[in-house]
Amino acid sequence: MTKREVIKGDAMTHTPGPWTLYPDDRTSDATIAGPDGWQVAVWCPPLHDCDQDSATRCTHHRRDTANARLIAAAPELLALVEQVAWHYEQSERDNASSIPHTIGQTARALLARIEGR
Fold this sequence. Notes:
By secondary structure, the protein is mainly alpha-helical. Helices cover 47% and strands 11% of the residues. The chain contains four helices and three strands. The chain is elongated and about 55 Å long.
């Protein structure tokens, strides 16, 4: 049994990571693809009324790109949260507090939210 199965079984499936961000330099749009190259998501933020020249991008464009990068990092973030939750479960079971309570509880709550529980 894997760490992931100990925590949540087979309750959730998603495209495995890593995901790669392919931004469109002409717009704020971006495509996010899985390791097989298939599209996972398309990021099409709202249009912003701002001047953009080759030297300066508007604040909205930079924020939109940062949001797309965060989405693309989701599989690795999920794996990290799963590891923290698993280690917290183990430390609770073994009465060895290697992970602070608030961090362990936050990881558990976040996993529940991700899984729709």
